[in-house]
Amino acid sequence: MPKHIAVICLLTALCWLGSAQVASAQESSQGSSQRSRDHRIQGIRVDVHGNLAYYGAMGAGFRIDIPIVPHGFLHNSHIQDELAISPGLDLFFFAFSSRCYVDNSGARYCPDRVGFGIWPVVMAQWNLYLTRSWSVFPELGVAFVINDHNYRGVRDKRSDFYVTPAASIGARWHFSRRNSLLLRLNFPAGFQIGLTF
User: Fold this and answer.
1) 189: closest CA among 171, 173, 167?
2) Which positions ≥6 away from 42 have C-beta within 8 Å?
3) Which of 18, 47, 118, 191 could bridge 196 with an S-S bond, Cβ 3.0-4.6 Å?
4) What is the pTM of this model?
């Protein structure tokens, strides 16, 4: 092979490698720049929360948020979004007076009602990332209500079980890339406050 053809091949190979390195560096720079602008919590996340519910009920629960449309629907907006499925479980302890009634002798009777509840829930959660620090979300889904009751210390022979629509509106204050303070107003669970991991 003539010397000048070898030199041309070598220069062509060096130019090709150089341009590939520059393109790779630009792509990497654009990717990291895009990632730095992405406010979304990446991947599956867990939240644990306390519950303050109706009738003096108190409890705790958890959710597992699984993004199913991670890049959302608002592609031409400055608001980033995602759609997640959010199954979870809430535990409740409650004590309240149920409806009063008058017995045959005319005496008014208001039985105290205490109990324990286990409420599995499955929600569709639409997260809207307004800024790097704040996101809000509406939720729609279904709750499976399982309550066990006592009346004045006498165990009720039945357990309440029913399925009800569930809805929430909530907000997160993001104090790190993955962690946030969670506030949620939910039907039927009431007010929830917790942390997202």
Assistant:
1) 167
2) 70, 178
3) 47
4) 0.69
- Closest by CA position to 60, among listed 52, 72, 68: 52
| CATH architecture assigned to 44-98+107-196 | Beta Barrel (2.40)
Q: End-to-end CA distance of the chain, in Å?
A: 64
pLDDT value of position 76: 79
Contact in structure between 142 and 122 (CB atoms under 8 Å) = yes
* The token pair that represents 161 in the structure block: 């079980």
Cα 69–chain centre separation: 14
In tens, the pLDDT along 86-144 reads 999 999 988 766 667 677 787 776 666 678 889 999 999 999 999 989 999 999 999 99
Name residues whose C-beta falls within 8 Å of residue 4's C-beta, 6 or more positions apart in sequence.
none
Between 68 and 21, residue with greater pLDDT: 68
For 80-98, write each residue's pLDDT tens digit.
999 999 999 999 988 766 6
Q: Is 3 helix (H, G, I), strand (E, B) or coil?
A: helix
Instruction: State which amino acid sits at residue 33.
Output: S
CA–CA distance, 19 with 104 (Å, rounded to integer)? 95
